[in-house]
Design goal:
Rossmann fold, 14 strands, single chain, 41% helix, 208 residues, 24% strand
Amino acid sequence: MKILILEDDQIFGGTLELFLTQQGYDVEWVTCIEDAENITFDQNFDLYLFDINLPDGRGLTLLDSLRFAEDNTPTIFITALVDMESMAEGFKLGALDYIKKPFNPAELLIRIEAKFKQETIFYGNIEFEPNTQMIRVNKKIIDIGLVPTCVFEKLIKNIGTTVSKEELLECLDHPSANALRVAITKIKQKLNIEITNIRAKGYLLEEI
């Protein structure tokens, strides 16, 4: 899961970033509204953790603009002061939850996992656990590497649907068509599955 933290407090923000990274999440941390706007334009996230009050604006206003741009990324607000009006506004915009400072990072982890817990996905003799990124074939754990696992996750979550090359390229540090082909080949060889190249569109994991 990829998480964006918007928090201007250097100590608190750094603590959250380190803690969530240690739990296996892919974390980006920014300290102002402008940086959050820029990074959400360039990258896709699975969860936003937004402070409400920042030196250059409000997290609620940012979320409102993101929703207007059809960005429906789940959002949890972290704030020192929670008033009923702000809570109502946040939930109206589609916020998942509020958590009040100070809090134990473990409490945030519990809330995240409770709201994003996903069941094991089965594909023939393959089992994939989205939370742990664990892949099993015939009950045996198979390690295919970080990039192929990311690509495989996008495919197995969209069985029967073509996943665009652009979306799959997001998994690569240095995106290129050749590097993507290498990752796809590794998945096919390691997991013994067929992945169809839909010309000029993307890749497809067909239903079985």
